[in-house]
Amino acid sequence: MAAVNGPRPAIGCVGPPRVLAGLDEVPRLDRVTHLAVHGSLPRLRPEELLALAEDIDLRGRGGAGFPFARKLKSVTRAAESRDGRTAVVVNGSEGEPSCLKDTALLLHSPHLVLDGALLAAAALNAEEVVVGVTRTDVEQSVQDAIYERGPVGLKLRVTLLPERFVTGESSAHVSGLSNGPALPSGRSIRTSDRGLGGLPTLLSNTETYAQLALAARVGALGYRSVGLPTEPGTLLLTVAGATVMETPTGVPLSYILELCGLGPGQGVLIGGYHGKWLDPYSAKAAEISRESLVSYGAVLGAGAVLPLPEDTCPVGEVVRVARWMAGESAGQCGPCVLGLPALADALEQAAHGGGMAALDAVRTRLRSVLGRGACSHPDGTSRFVESALTMFPDDFDDHALGSGCGRPVLGTLPLPADETAVAPAAEQTTERLLVDWTRCQGHGLCMDVLPEIIQLGADGYPEKASMDLPGRLRPKALRAIRRCPALALRIQD
Fold it and tell me: How far is CA 172 from CA 71, 91, 255, 296, in A?
């Protein structure tokens, strides 16, 4: 089911913006404003585009980090061995609840993405460019951009796909765009060989195409003028599931968190729900680069950065995510259908005083899932849980032995269910939503999420420090708490 209206991210930058240029002046760059900000798109011969991608070491920004130039070469070779027909696909389906960077681009700067896709299509002589999305507001933004451009010499369309974690997997995405089920195929067939409609297909994510369009305008030397020499340019991060930051590579992770009004807390999850936890000390030392994060055993993935505040229960947060990830199974193999729910059950048992035997059962379930799935979903979920066990061993022990950690589960790790779940009638009690004035910085994001009870005064700060919170609004309050960059909101029983 496609999301009708998901969260809209706040936007920030470290240094002058590049792919996010112009968004400090207007909320969305239409075609005219886009050209005024970025200038006209140059025409590049296929060999020039390939050389540009190699010179800047452009890599996919959807998670795997695969070199873009190698994808171009693979599609070209496949097309030459057949009839020469190709297609280009923009993967804009952020099934990862902690990621909003591609959504931000397609909502606010869609023409930059289309520029990159059309550049690649021209190099491959593609007959079609398709943008796959999972939100209706994103679909409308892209459709508006297509209309604003007018004829482009090939078929250009946007397609709405189901909102699921696995929709972003390449074979699932292509299957959905080809009018099939948006589920992983389970077969190791590369989209570069057989993708959209059976054609050799260049598939990459939204930010990758935006970066390509930027590089075409500024050239390799201009692109390399920021960031690390070994990893040039900027990249987009989604911080705390709420703020999209553009930053040059090499910037300290702690500085990114500080700009968002956050600290490392109990630890920072890097790479989203297929990612790894960094302890607070590592998070303070790490930089935003592949090399730095690999030295801590982490990868940036799709750019999700999730600090865990001190006042939430890490065990409860991990259980919530593990249960949701089990529900996002493609339903096509045993490790997903049976293994992930069993893993979530074992985690819940351990979290609710199941004893050390329950923790042993969690580790057994992890071993039974790893390396056996038809796609990467079981492995990724298992790595997330395994990293949490390593990161929070005392908390898991305390919960397993029945004493717990004494902290509530605030829902800091974002999940779509938080936005729609409604408590049963017997649980529709009134709690209090509290504002910590020592932290509040007047961002106003809380009112955007929870206008039913939060009103801002003339100074931009909430009018009240304590507000009744009906049970039916608790899910939205949890979302407001997550979106507050200053961590100034909490719920009181």
Answer: 18, 11, 36, 31
